[in-house]
């Protein structure tokens, strides 16, 4: 080949480069790009007021990009906009906001690889009533997290006591009487909700409840500048090196979520990392089309816990919820939760109007329905549907109560306690190529009537892997599923918190006063071609499911945790039309069983390693 003569391949590469540059330039051609430094937003000082003023100046404009030169930007609550905010699955309150993005269209927030550092109970990003917003290329962190990490440095099993180093120490700690109080930006927390992490695995301990901190019965004594001795604080004194993460108690430990999407459409989040938060990393309600690509929730260097609650949570959304190439780890709750809400029907007022009430205190202020939405009247006893109709009017009386008028009602209202769910606001879900691991609780909770595809992910959680639930007794999360495919995923050591977790657990949550009805609650769940690295040999628990397919799964013995289980590998209760085929259980030396109760049309074929 002669020097300087381009090959066919090099010509193609050059053409692709020119084309990519063209599209990059074209993408900005119709948009105004604002360098935030020109508006006083620079590293090294509190820029909350400047950020608020810049956002306010953009009201009425479209297709604007806010660009941050790479740096560390500081945000404090004292000069930030304050408004009363109802945030689902959090605690409502007056909230200070760094980026209040209200009523925007086509706004792009490009951090340029920057880190945004927040102080105190300040909410970083709030989207409301906005369309086409893009968030990309930045990291959210706080100067000190909303939890404390107590690292065990000494242990006395005979005395059930231990000595721990407390981090962070920026705001100190106090001993009041014999109780430990931990300092934050402008408040203190008692020992509250907590979990113990194993520093060797970066995950909660095997059967971690042994080391759960007791808020009231402990006896604390200061034994050094950043050390405290705790006696009778746990059931068993935790091992040296254990990290006990405590994050306060409700209703004050979910006041500052990192990203809140509210009544917005077409939100795209790319290359964004969240290290901590006083609530969830991302909470979306009544949002349409949310796409996360490369969204990361993980503990910052030097910490073991990330957010105080879920990594991502979606309530009453529609369109498509898509997660791809995300890594969600170290959070103190679930990786993702998608669901609707059951609200209580307290009284029929005549004229097709019902007096209703929000069912859970952390859903107060929820926009449950608007005219045109399809809703279902359901039995609160069986959690099954009764009558579908259309909303014609909604009158909000307060955060809890609302009057809902519908187009038609049954000729005779059914007896017994009733609820209502919104059928219009259920999204489709696509999860591809994500990693969810090393967190308290589950990898994914899916309760939506939309089409769901979960494919090519890696899950490793302290409780069940994928929980398909729905309940009208606790969190009042609605959504009996209708079309779920869980294919070609890897599940690693699911349920190590108790040793009893299933990779797939599908069942409505019922109280003692509730019962199974005449039909199944969930439908059409396919769990296929997944690989399970398992210490307990468990595959699936299904209750009140019609149309369950368990095929082509490989379950291999893994000895990371104590092996063995007395539970059935597949547990069926009140299920119908079940196919269990071509599954392989490999390496297990105890009986691998399938148990059936009140189930019909169960077909089993070509399974290996099952009794």
Task: Provide keyphrases for this structure.
Pectin_lyas_fold, mainly beta, 14-stranded mixed sheet, Pectate Lyase C-like, repeat, globular, 23-stranded parallel sheet
Fold and architecture overview:
One of its GO terms (molecular function) is alpha-galactosidase activity. By secondary structure, the protein is mainly beta. It has four domains: 38-141 and 254-314, 3 Solenoid (Pectate Lyase C-like); 148-247, no CATH class; 340-422, Thrombin, subunit H; 434-605. Helices cover 5% and strands 45% of the residues. The chain contains two helices and 53 strands. It has a 23-stranded parallel β-sheet that branches. Strand 31 (385-396) and strand 32 (401-406) form a beta hairpin. It is globular, with a radius of gyration of 26 Å.
Proportion of residues in helical segments: under 10%
Major sheet description: 23 strands, parallel
Residues in β-strands, percent: over 45%
For the record, give the distance between the C-alpha atoms at the N and C termini, rounded to a whole number: 66 Å
Helical element count? 2
- The gross shape turns out to be globular
Radius of gyration: 26 Å
Structural class: mainly beta
Pfam family, one: Beta-barrel_GLAA-B_I
InterPro entries: Beta-barrel_GLAA-B_I, Beta-barrel_GLAA-B_II, Beta_helix, PbH1, Pectin_lyas_fold, Pectin_lyase_fold/virulence
Protein name: Alpha-1,3-galactosidase B
Organism: Pontiella sulfatireligans
